[in-house]
Structure formats: C-alpha cells, structure tokens
C-alpha cells in the first residue's frame, strides 16, 4: 500500500502546485503511467476507470463551454446587475440575493462555473459601489462558499455528483428527488451561517445611481435571447432522456453545440458574430479529460492496495450503529478525506469503499451514497486544496487584488462548514425516511 500512497500523494502535490506551469492533466497522467509501470494498477483497470469518468468529464467540459459562451454574451453580468438593483440600495438585502443568485447559477452551471464566472463580476460591481474591503470580502466569501455548499441539487451541479450517480446507477430523476430538498436546506443553512459571520460588515446603503442598466452588459443579443429557452430545454432533456439511458454528456454536449453554432452565426456564415466559438473551444478545460482518467487511475491503485477495503470495514461498523451514525459518519469522513486529498479522488475512494462494504441494509447504503456526495461537495471548504475550483477561485481573486491567505481561508472554512454540513446530513436522513415511507 505504501507505494500506491506515495504515488498518489506525489501526483496530488504536482496537481496542486503545478510547478513551472505544468498542467494538471499531465501531472495526473504521469502518476498513472508510473502506477502502470510499477504494477500498482494493471492495463485492465484503464477501461474500468474510463467507464466511471467519461460521462462526468465530458459533461463538465460541455457545461463550462456553455457557461463561457453565456458569460461572453454578458448573461451573468446582466443577472448580477439586476440583483444589485433588486437590493434597493440596502446592503443587508443585497447579501442574501447574491447568495441565492450563486445557488441558482451553481445548480445549472456547476460549482466551478459559479465560482469562476460570478465571483469576478460581483467583485467588479462591489468596487463600483465603493464597498469597503471588509464588505467586499464578505460577499466574495459568500460567492465562493455557496458555489460548493449548494452544488447538491442536480447530477450536473458538481462533477462529484456525476461520478457518484454514474457509479451507483442513480437516475437523474431519483437523484433530484432526494437532493433538491436537501439542497434547499443547505442554502438556508449556508445563508444563516454566512449572515451570522458577516452581518456586521454589511453596508447600510449603497448608491444605485452608480449602476449601469443591465441591458448595457449584453454583448450578444442572439445568444442571450437563446439562453433561457435553451436552459429550460436542457433541464427537460435531463429529466426526460436520462431515464431512457441517454448519457448526461450527450444532452449537455448537444446544448453546447447548438449554442456554439448560434454564437458563431454558422447559419449566417459568421456574419454578426460577437463571440469567437473557436476561442471558446480552445480555452475549454480539455485538461480535465486527461486529469480525470489519470487521477482516478492513481486512486484506483489505492483500491488495489487495499485502502478502500479498510475504509469499507469502518463503514460497516458505522452502519451497525444505525442510519444516523452511518450518514453523519460517512458525510464527515468524506469531508475530511476531500479536504486533504481533494474531492475528485475523494468521491471515488468513498464510492469504492461503500461498494465493498458488505451486509449493510439497502436504506443505510443509500444514505451513505448520498452522504458521501454531500461530504465531498461541502468538505472541500475546510481547506484550500479541497477542490481545484477553490484553488482557481483564489487565483482569480489574487488577480483582482484580493488576497486570502491559506490560514485565513481555513479559519473561515473551519468555522462555517461544520454546522452547515451537520444540518444538511440531518436533513438527508429525515428526507430519505419520508421518501422511503411514501
């Protein structure tokens, strides 16, 4: 097991630090290559892992393409300006509105899209309104945290969700039936905790006159007008086609291609195009495809070395103490694991361990599956290395002149995350009992 663990930790370190700009995909694939050469994994593991990650990976890429296209069209800035106006010039009204906006964007465009696209827009608006540094930090922390804590509702809301749903064969509809109500609890808990932490930083008033009209943010009217019907059709497609066996990536990819065609005006020979689809495609996160396969192969080495079997025994012990212990123990265990090893490998370690745990009642096993997702969605907020999205979010903030040190981040994360995580896990147990009795 020691060799597999050393390979994993080395690969994770390279992924996080990216020495000399080394891409995360090449670091992960290098680790996978070493795992193959040393016998930690075998060639037969490659198709097994690809089967687990391909749908999640290409769904993620398609969602980011859609998000970037809408961002280029001015969609997110338009939405943020509307929210700023709905705040009515009152800081304490604006704060929950921004949190709710972040939650809505996260549910459809995934946590990465919300954190990376909404945060700089919110920062720009706050600076325009002359918010104090302390108030700006409060809103920035809110947008960063809500992107993860409310990434539960749909399979597409987080890469972690897609991996787990595909691994356990959970349909899009069943996942939503369980997690949408739980996510509402998470939103309320997140808002409550953030409010308690930052209510004193909220300005009493802000000058609405300094805000431009939302319509001025729009740079591509055609793509903007297509956004709302496309999103409605996309969500309907998930609920209708996913139960028929159509991969989520196929539905999302089709929507991305349609939006690319509209953005490039391919039906008009490119006339009137305000967005470069080729630029968007070039800048899409293709490295995540290589990263997903490489990193999960390295994680599979931990499974082959027996780590997940050890964790499975711990899960059996938790299950023996009833559903409450199983859900809360699994959720916090997944959160701690994600905070130190990143949530993408963390969710697969948890899924493999749950699968190997024998003799657990069906309802308790289902609780553990969803608790693992919750822990891996919320757990990354304990530390900056818990998710790649958080590292990128911190990088975006530093480019905007806002520096959040690791110590400061962890003090905030350790204060905010545990109560939200506990409330959400309690809600999961109660809601699954309701569904089970229905």
Helix and strand layout, with pairings?
Blueprint: H1 2-17, H2 24-37, H3 45-73, H4 75-86, H5 91-128, H6 133-149, H7 159-168, H8 172-198, H9 221-241, H10 248-264, H11 277-282, H12 287-304, H13 307-319, H14 323-341, H15 343-356, H16 362-378, H17 388-399, H18 406-437
Helix pairs in contact: 1-2, 1-12, 2-12, 3-5, 3-7, 3-10, 3-12, 4-5, 5-6, 5-17, 6-8, 7-15, 7-16, 8-18, 9-10, 12-15, 13-15, 14-15, 14-16, 14-18, 15-16, 16-18
Can you offer a commentary on this structure?
- With 438 residues, the protein is mainly alpha-helical.
- It contains 18 helices and no strands.
- It has helices at 2-17, 24-37, 45-73, 75-86, 91-128, 133-149, 159-168, 172-198, 221-241, 248-264, 277-282, 287-304, 307-319, 323-341, 343-356, 362-378, 388-399, 406-437.
- Helix 5 (91-128) crosses helix 6 (133-149), helix 5 (91-128) crosses helix 17 (388-399) and helix 13 (307-319) crosses helix 15.
- The longest helix has 38 residues, at 91-128.
- It starts with a helix and ends with a helix.
- It is a multi-pass membrane protein.
- The chain crosses the membrane at residues 23-44, 56-78, 98-127, 134-156, 176-198, 246-263, 284-302, 314-337, 409-432.
- It is found in: Cell membrane.
- Its main location: membrane.
- Keywords: Cell membrane, Membrane, Transmembrane, Transmembrane helix.
Structural class: mainly alpha
Largest beta sheet, briefly? none
Q: What is the molecular shape? A: globular
Mean pLDDT: 86
Summarize the structure.
InterPro entries: Arsenical_pump_ArsB (IPR000802). This protein is mainly α. It is 76% helix and 0% strand.
């Amino acid at each position: 097991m020691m060799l597999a663990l050393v390979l994993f930790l080395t690969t994770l370190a390279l992924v996080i630090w990216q020495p000399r700009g080394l891409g995360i995909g090449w670091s992960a694939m290098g680790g996978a290559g070493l795992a193959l050469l040393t016998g930690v994994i075998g060639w037969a593991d490659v198709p097994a892992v690809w089967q687990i990650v391909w749908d999640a990976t290409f769904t993620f890429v398609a969602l980011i393409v859609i998000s970037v296209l809408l961002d280029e069209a001015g969609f997110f800035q338009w939405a943020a300006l509307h929210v700023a106006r709905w705040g009515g010039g009152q800081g304490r009204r604006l704060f929950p509105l921004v949190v709710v906006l972040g939650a809505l964007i996260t549910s459809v465009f995934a946590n990465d899209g919300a954190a990376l696209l909404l945060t700089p827009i919110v920062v720009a608006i706050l600076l325009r309104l002359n918010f104090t540094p302390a108030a700006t930090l409060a809103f920035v922390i809110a947008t960063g945290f809500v992107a993860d804590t409310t990434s539960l509702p749909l399979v597409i809301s987080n890469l972690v969700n897609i991996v787990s749903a595909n691994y356990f064969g959970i349909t899009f509809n069943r996942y939503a039936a369980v997690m949408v109500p739980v996510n509402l609890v998470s939103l309320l808990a997140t808002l409550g905790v953030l409010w308690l932490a930052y209510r004193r930083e909220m300005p009493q008033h802000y000058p609405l006159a300094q805000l431009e009209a939302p319509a001025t943010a729009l740079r591509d009217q055609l793509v903007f007008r297509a956004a709302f019907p496309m999103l409605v059709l996309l969500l309907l497609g998930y609920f209708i086609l996913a139960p028929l066996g159509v991969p989520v990536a196929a539905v999302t990819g089709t929507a991305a291609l349609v939006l690319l065609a509209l953005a490039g005006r391919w039906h008009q020979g490119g006339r009137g195009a305000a967005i470069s689809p080729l630029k968007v495609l070039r800048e899409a996160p293709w490295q995540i495809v290589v990263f997903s396969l490489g990193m999960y192969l390295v994680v599979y080495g931990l499974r082959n070395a027996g780590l997940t079997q050890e964790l499975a025994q711990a899960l059996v012990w938790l299950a023996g103490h009833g559903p409450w212990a199983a859900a809360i123990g699994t959720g916090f265990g997944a959160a701690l694991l994600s905070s130190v090893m990143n949530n993408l490998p963390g969710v697969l370690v948890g899924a493999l361990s749950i699968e190997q745990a024998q003799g657990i009642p069906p309802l308790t096993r289902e609780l553990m599956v969803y608790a693992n997702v919750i822990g891996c969605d919320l757990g990354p907020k304990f530390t900056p290395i818990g998710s790649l999205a958080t590292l990128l979010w911190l990088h975006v903030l530093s480019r905007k002149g806002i520096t959040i040190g690791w110590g400061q981040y962890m003090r905030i994360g350790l204060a905010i995350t545990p109560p939200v995580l506990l409330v959400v896990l309690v809600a999961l147990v109660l809601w699954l009992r309701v569904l089970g009795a229905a």
